[in-house]
Design brief:
Shape: globular
Helix content: 25-40%
Strand content: 25-35%
Number of helices: 16
Number of strands: 30
Radius of gyration: 27 Å
Bound molecules: zinc ion
Structural class: alpha+beta
Strand order of the largest sheet: 5-4-8-2-1-12-14
Length: about 600
Amino acid sequence: MVALLLALVTAQSAAPAVAQTAAAAAQPIRYTLSFPAPQTHYIEVAAAVPTDGRPQIELMMPVWTPGSYLVREYERNIEAVTAADPDGGALAVQKTDKNHWRVTTGGAASVTVKYRVYAHEMSVRTNWVEAGFALLNGAPTFMTLAELTPRAHEVIINPATGWKRSLTGLPAMPGGDHRYRAPDFDTLVDSPIVIGNPAVYEFEVDGKKHYLVNEGEGGIFDGARAAKDVETLVREHRRMWGSLPYDKYYFFNMMTLTTEGGNGLEHKNSQMLTTNRFATRTHRAYLGWLELVSHEFFHAWNVKRLRPVELGPFNYEDEVLTRSLWISEGVTDYYGEMAVHRAGLSNDTEFFDALSDHIEELQTTPGRLVQSVEMASYDAWIKYYRPDENSINVSVSYYTKGAVLGFLLDAKIRKATSGAKSLDDVMRAAFQKFSGARGFTPDDFRGVAEQVSDTSLRGFWSDAIEGTAELDYAEVLDTFGLRFKPTTSNGRVWTGLSTRNDAGRLVVTQIRRDSPGLAAGVNVDDEILAIDELRVRADRWDNRLDQYKPGDTVTLLVARREHLTRLPMTFATDPPRQWRLEESPAATESQKQQLSRWLRPAT
Ligand SMILES: [Zn+2]
C-alpha cells in the first residue's frame, strides 16, 4: 500500500498567510461540480489539475474520513474517469491501485480529469444527492494529486435547477457565487458543502456569524427554537474556553426521519449532523439533540485544534492509530453534556442521569476488565467500529470510559486544589500549549493535568487509563457530596443472555462473561425452544423467566445448527441498578460549594 502524507504544511486554522504561501508554492487544483440530473444521485466532477510539466501524474482518493475511524473505500462510488489536455484531446488514464489513477499528460501544463460520483448514502461522512438538495463531504468526493506539495484546492459549484444556495465553511473565492478556495487538501476534506434551499437561521457571537442549516424540517422540526438554544450553547462553550477559534461556523442539520438519526461529525468550522426531524417534539429527544450539537461543537477545540499528535496532517490512505481518543471523544462527551447543563438547557437531575448512564454502561460492561481505554482508542479501527456479539466481553468504549474518566479527573483536580482549579483549566492550558502544529502525546496531556493540579497523576494514569483496574468512585462522590442511589434487588432471575425475536424464533444474540448462560454452554445464534420441556415462544421469554427464582436450575432445549441440545442452567439474581448518581442528604456545606462551582461556574 502506498502511504503518502499530503500536506507538509497544515494551518491550525485557515489562516490567510498560510493559504497564500501554499498557493504561491504550487498551482491550485480547480474542481467544477455539476448536477445535471440530481434525481439520479450523481455528482459530475471536472478537475483542472496542474501537471508541473510531468509526463505522468498520480491522483488519489481518501479511503477514510478523519473523526470516523474505519476504512470506507470511498473510491467504490467513482465511475467514468477520463482525462483530456487543454485542447480536449483524450489522455490515457490507468488505475494503479484501488484508489489511485495515473494520467499520461502528453506534456500538457494542465489536464482536465472528469469523473462521476454516485451519491446515495445519507450519513455524516458520505454524499447524498437528490432532486431537492445535495450533501457533499470532501473525502468521498475529491481526487487529489498523490504528492507532498501543499497546494490550494478550489471548488466551483453549478447548482442544479432551482437550488438557490450553497453553504460551507470553506473560504469564498472572488468571482461570483458558489466559488470557494481551500488553502490545502485537509481543509477541503474538513469542509462539507450543502446545496439547495435549506432553512437557514443566523446568529452572531463575538461578532462571528453562526448558521444553523436545516435540510428537511418538513414543518415538524422547530428550527427557530433550536437556533435560539444553539446560540445559548455557543455562548457557554465560549465562556469556558475564553474565545471562539474560527471566523464563522455552520451547523449542518440533515433531517433523515428515523433511519440514520442522531449522528454527528466534527470539523474546524462546521459540524454535520443527521437528525430525526421529530427531535424537537419531545423533551428527551430534544435534549439528546442538544447534547449531540454540544459534543460536536466542543470538538472545534478538542480534537480539531487541541489534538493527539497522530491526528494531523492526515494520511488518508491508511489507518491512523492513537491512544488518546478517550480525551478527544470521551472528555468531549463529558463536556458536551456539561455545557448543555451549564447553559441552563438541562436540570440537575437530567445531567446526573446522563452521567449515570455512562457510569452504568461502563460498570456493566465485562470488557472494562480486559481492554484499557488507551487500547480501546488504539484499536478503534478494528474493534469499536467493527463490533460483534463478543465485543461487550472484551472491549470498552473510549467514549463511555473517557467521559467517566473526565468526571473522575475533574473531581481529583478540584479536590487537590481545594476547588481553585478544575479540568476546565487543564483543557484551556492544554489548548494553549498543544493546539499548534504538533499536537499532544499521552504524557503531554498528563503533564498539563499534573501542572494544573500540582499533584502526581502517575498512579491514576497507570490504573485507570493504561490499565484495566476497577475505577474508584469514592473520591468523586466525596468531592461533590454525591452518592449512588440506594437499591435493592427486584428479585428477578438473570441469565446474562440477550435475545431477539426472529419471526417468532427466540435467538440468542449475546452472552455476557461470568453469566449463567455462559456457564450453561449456550452459544450465540442458538434458538431457545423450551425451558424444562415446555415450549417458550419468543414473545413470552421475559414472562416465562418471571416464573422462576434466583438459584432455580432448569434445562434449556436449544436448536444449534438444527441439532437439538439440552443444557442445564442455574439462574442468578438480576443485578440491581446501582450506578445512579444523586446528591447525598448528608452533604456538607463545603461539598455543596464544590458541587455548585462544578455545575454552575458562571454564577
Ligand atoms: Zn466526537
